[in-house]
Structure formats: structure tokens, C-alpha cells
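User: Predict DUF481 domain-containing protein's structure from this.
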Amino acid sequence: MLTAFLIATSLQTQTPAPPASTAADAASERAAAAAEKAAAAAEKAAEASARMADAAERLSQSLTQPPPAAPAAPAAPAAEAKKDEAPKEDPWKGTVGLGLIALSGNASTLTFNGLASAERKTRQWIYSAKLQAVYGRSRLPATETEEERTQVVALAAAAQVRGDRRFTKVVSGYLLAGAETDHIKSVEARGIGEAGAGISWWDEKDEQGRSTWLRTDLAFRYFRETRFQYYPTRMDLPDVDLGGPRVGISLGYGLSKDIIFTEEAEAVPNVLGESRLLFNSTSKLSARLTESLSLGTSLIITYDSAPPVGKVSTDTALSASVEVAF
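Assistant:
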């Protein structure tokens, strides 16, 4: 009986076992929590992998692409750039021309004129040279002597060299030296020296190939003129000096690509002695036949308010010539 009593008491004091369903739910919750943590870890791993891939791509691009160029300085306005642009250096270029008039019969005349000019431009200098000559001889109808029948009607020559130093594309200073002779006008020799400034107002060539330019000079000129009368009788004449301001203009206007009109004029009043004014003008129309060959017609006017004794003040010459460019 005692043994049965002890066994019954022991069974009453033991804790009852939990139900089977409660243990299964706890295990399921732990498994769900573990799965959630695993999913969160996988998501973070995927984000880290994407970031690493992006970083690797940027590194690859930086290694394969050239470094970016430095930012360019702001461009100057087109007008300012054109104004400050240095002129190109050109080789020597120029023309050689020849005109001729020949008559025969009861009276014969032979007159020819030649001219040559050359110019070269560099970034700082402009060099130019001019040569000009004219000769004419006439044989009149029968007179008393052969000497009276043959007469020289033109005998003159002139040469000039000039050097311009560019200060800007527009303004330059220059020196000029030259010599002239004209036996018909009783000028045995005339030496010329000049210093001044030149302004190139424009010098352009349009899309059709037409050239236009305008240049002016303001300078002081001095020359010594030795005089001798060659015709009709030979005699010595007093020499004269002249010095004064010189105003010059050179204009060119292209009527078309192959036809151009030019005008060169100058005026020199004397301020060193007696009143005297020299004025020269050359108007010319040129038509180009080929790249190097052209025809030209020119009108030359020379005026001297105080010419040698027995000479008139104004001379004019109208001539046609063939010119070759080089």
C-alpha cells in the first residue's frame, strides 16, 4: 500500500508535457525568421555586388578614355580677330608694260612708253619700286635741213623706291627716294627724298574676285631740280629747290574680276621759297585677258605752276599698253 501511495504522489508532482502542436508552431516561426534574415542578407549582397560592378565600369572608362581637354579660352569677336590678324607674307609681284605709236608717210612718228612696277609685302614691311620711261621722235615733211625735219617730242624717265614699316595693319611709316628727268620740260635731273605716314583704309577682295583698296599718304618731300634747256636751243637755266607737304592717294576699284580702275594722284605745294604747286595724276583702266596678260589705257596729267622759262604748266598723255604680270 505504501508503494502504491508513493507512485501516485510522484505522478501528481510531475509537469505535464506540452502539446505537440505548440512545438511545431515554434519551430515554424524560427524557420521563417531565419529565412527572412537570409533574404535580407541576399538583398544586401546583391546591392553590394551592383555597386562594385558600377565602380569597376567607371574605372574601366577612366582608363580607356583620354583625359578631358582644358577649357578653351573665350574666342575674341570675329571683327576684332580680323582687325588684329597679321597680314600674310607675299612674294614679289609686279607688272611690265609697253605702249607704242608708229606713223609713216608724209610725216612719220615713233613714240613708245614703258613702265614696270614691283611690290612685296611681309608682316612688318612693304617694299615697292616703279620705273617709267617715254620716248618720241617725229619726222616732219621736207624742210630746209634734215635737222629741222627730225624732232624729239618726248624724252623722260622716272624711278622710285619705297619702304613702308607697318605699325599696325592700317598705319605705316615710310621712306621714299627717287630720280626724274624730262628733257622736253628742261628738267635735267630731279632728285627726290620723302618721309611720311601711310594709311590703308581698306584692301579687300570679294567672293567674285573683285579687288578694291584705298590708301592715303601724308608726308614731307624735298627735291633739288637742276634745269637745262635742250630744245630748241641749248642753254643752262637756274636750278631750283622745292620742299613741302605731300598728300597722296591710291584708289583701286574692280568693276569685275578681270576689269579694274585705278587712280593715283599727289599734290606738293612749295613752302621753302617762291609759291609753286606740283600735281600729278594717273588714271588707268586695265582689262585682264589671261592670268598674266592684260590691256591697259591710261591718262596722265602733270601740272607745274612755275615751269622753266618757255614751258607750259600742264602736260597730258593718253596711252594704251600691253602688260605682263609676274
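Residues 20-64 form the longest helix (45 residues).
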